[in-house]
Amino acid sequence: MLAVKQVRFDYDRKPLFDAVSFEVTAGERAVLFGLNGSGKTTLFRLVTGELTPQAGKIECLGEVGLVRQTIESTDMTVLEWTMRSDPERYALYEDVSSGDEMRVMRSYERALALDVYNLEQEATRALTRLGLEEHLFRNINELSGGEKTRAQLSTLTMKRVDLVLLDEPTNHLDLESIDWLTKWLNQFKGTVLIISHDRQLMDDVATTILELSGGLVTRYPGNYTAYKHQKEEERVRDERAHARYENRKAELLEMIAQYKGWHLKAKATASVRSPGAQKGAANLAIKMKAREQKLRQLEDNRPQKPKEEKSISVRFAADELEAKTWLTCEDVTFGYDNPFYEPFSFSMNKGERISITGPNGSGKTTLLNVLIGERAPHSGVIKRHPRLKIGYFSQTLERLPETGTLLEALLANSEIGETEARTLLAHFLFRRDEVHRPITEASMGEKCRIAFLILYFSDAHLLALDEPTNYLDVATREQIEAALSVYPGGLLLISHDRYFHRLTSRTIELGEHIVIRENDDTGKSVDVEQMVRTMDELTKDELKFFDEAGNLLPFDETSEMNRIE
């Protein structure tokens, strides 16, 4: 259905892909994922034909449909936008609907052949099937993220596509829309290729995981959970193979050194009149060369050293606050001109972790801002413990400075010096000169990493996180998740990443009404063993400090600068 064969693509005169190859067979639901910067979007644009490879070829069989992250459109109705998804028929539709006799006569025969007169009805039926019958005459730009995704999918049903390509389809969807999309993808009879960092979507939909790393694509059958198991088995296998290689290499080097010493000694003591001694020295030389040959063969077939993936190093700290109750709401309403919901009351105790969920536009961010004191409630009373410190991560990253460098952003939001700031930035994958990159040139993923680093210095009792994972790759999400799993404070969480909600014990659901419920334990629990391995990895290396030139500086172990354990 889709075949990428020996594709090479250069970016900024450097090869991003040299000979990448993979296939997606008919009926598969494949997910392409990898670290930020690995080239997923570029590879996706090569598949869609937006970019042309320097070498190799890409073959797609059947009709292809594309669902993008966002819709960029001039003002038009949803119905018109859907009809325009078939450019040839829509151009004819405009002709035969123009009232201009010359245009009508010119296009009439072709319009009949392509059934153009039914185009509007087809678009209406497609939008109705996708639940958008009440939005036909709304401006396409006024739709929510979930509604725009449905609008894009409606165009696919009109074309009867065989292969669907989706680019981060859950990025701007609420949980209800994600559930709907999951069902749609599982019921779709064709082939699917998705770029996604949504681990739950990969678990629920994927039949194949395509991992993009180092310019190569590796296929793993099954969903994300199966992929993780296979990667763990692969890691253990590679470590054992490399350990055997190192042990055998050490043995051979030791034997070569021994035979070399024996040979030199035998050669020095062997007399010309003693053929036996000379023969013995020669035999030692032969054995030494045989071991050297084995060493060369071992090196020629040396197993690949297990990769150490780059990952951020963070462990959130929290000051002690022994009070039992941290926050209470009494008959609270929130909204703008009018309250969104009826009054509600609840309390949050020490160390509690609470999710806030609901459809897009239901007021999740508004409620979060009201709870933490960023906005005043419409009515009612919110009491917070006077010593409660709150660390806030906003999905708009509005608290980041608009000018300056990454290093300056950190210095402005902490009381540390430049040496420690550079070291901490290195723990968040900003190396050497990268710390001087203007924040205006940083990607959204890089800005999120800076925002988390600033959050680290808040020493907050309670973290309020509003969509913290939108621009992070899977590896970084898992590192943050692992750090939050052992964070000793409380948590208020809004996230479209359903894996993250395993960290919470209660949920505030926003819908027709506000419902506060205890989370059940039927979902998948956090992988504790993986979390422990991750935290061990984060803390195994001592903290090192570097000067401007990158030279290692001496470190005083008694210094308060050592904030990362």
TrEMBL record:
Does RNA-binding count among this protein's keywords? no
- SUPFAM superfamilies reported for this sequence: P-loop containing nucleoside triphosphate hydrolases
Q: Which UniProt keyword terms apply here?
A: ATP-binding, Nucleotide-binding, Repeat
Domain ABC transporter: start-end pairs = 2-239, 327-538
The residues that cross the membrane are none
One example GO MF annotation = ATP binding
| Cross-referenced InterPro entries | AAA+_ATPase (IPR003593), ABC_tran_Xtn (IPR032781), ABC_transporter-like_ATP-bd (IPR003439), ABC_transporter-like_CS (IPR017871), ABCF (IPR050611), P-loop_NTPase (IPR027417)
Q: What is this protein called?
A: ABC transporter related
> What organism is listed for this UniProt entry?
Exiguobacterium sp. (strain ATCC BAA-1283 / AT1b)
